[in-house]
Design a protein that fits this description.
Blueprint (H helix, E strand, L loop, with lengths): L6 H24 L6 H15 L2 E2 L18 E4 L2 E3 L13 E10 L2 E10 L5 H20 L6 H14 L10 E3 L6 E5 L16 E4 L2 E3 L5 E3 L6 E3 L5 E3 L2 E6 L2 E4 L10
Antiparallel strand pairs: 1-4, 2-4, 3-11, 4-5, 6-7, 6-8, 8-13, 9-12, 10-11, 13-14
The chain binds magnesium ion.
Length: about 260
């Protein structure tokens, strides 16, 4: 069921959005060559406790998960692109890291993801990250009253295809509110003019992610981490966005923190 939020409810979602933005900015700043993925999770956990927030991930156990996630952040490195379960791995020079983070505060969820390189970047990794960010910008620009879900999907896909990436539609955006994954689904490819009409009060997580080679994923033995079948690297950019009469509000915006 698709739920629409009142302006007061959107206002009430802002603290969660701000906290997720600040946490990702902090973690990005602190994550370097030599940082262990488990240390990123511990730090995120500490920030959650300090803020009195609640992790959306730690007890998360959907049908496709073998067991509850058990950590508070997804850390996907190189050929892992989504749902990366933090494990004992120390980041190396040139690693491409995606952090995906969601919490609730006062019962309202915010969900956002960021990709970046630690140490010396490869040009092709920076290009991939840039494409996911521009696809997210295009999606946000299309998230206006009068458009439809298909317009967002088409905007994302157009950016990816123009840059030569293929698209996997198994995982995409979703409604956000009292729970992390609600209706509607927002695929990363679709037809403009189709799908649910964008109404004021619709809050969605928009999350383009692309791989440099294949569009096929396999799940690691940990039951969570999704990795490209051909070893090619992936990147992921996500924001929680409220659609309003006055245009989209990016609830997880980090730009005021000096981080894209
Ligand atoms: Mg997310």
């Amino acid at each position: 069921m698709i739920e629409l939020r009142t302006p007061a409810e959107i206002e009430a979602m802002k603290p969660a959005g701000r906290f997720v933005a600040e946490t990702l900015a902090t973690l990005r700043e602190e994550t370097k060559v030599g940082t262990n993925l488990l240390a990123i999770d511990r730090r995120a956990h500490e920030l959650i406790r300090r803020a009195g927030a609640e992790s959306c991930y730690i007890d998360y156990h959907p049908s496709f998960g073998a067991r509850p996630f058990g950590k508070v952040i997804c850390t996907s490195v190189n050929d892992a692109v989504l749902h990366g379960l933090p494990h004992d791995y120390t980041l190396r020079d040139g690693d491409l890291v995606s952090l995906d983070f969601a919490v609730s505060i006062d019962g309202w969820v915010a969900d956002s993801a960021i990709s970046f390189v630690v140490g010396t970047p490869r040009d092709e990794d920076l290009a991939l990250i840039d494409t996911t960010q521009r696809a997210l910008d295009a999606a946000i620009g299309t998230a206006t009253v009068g458009n439809r879900i298909g317009d967002i999907s088409a905007a994302i896909a157009q950016v990816a295809r123009a840059d030569g990436y293929s698209i996997n539609t198994d995982f995409g955006g979703h409604g956000v509110g009292r729970i992390m994954h609600g209706d509607p689904h927002v695929p990363n490819d679709g037809k403009a003019g189709r799908g649910y009409p964008l109404r004021p009060g619709l809050v969605v997580a928009l999350e383009p992610w692309f791989l440099q080679g294949t569009d096929e994923l396999i799940t690691d033995p940990d039951g969570w981490t999704l990795r490209s079948v051909d070893g090619s690297r992936g990147a992921h950019s996500e924001h929680t966005v409220a659609i309003t009469e006055d245009g989209p509000i990016v609830l997880t915006d980090r730009s005021w923190l000096g981080v894209d």
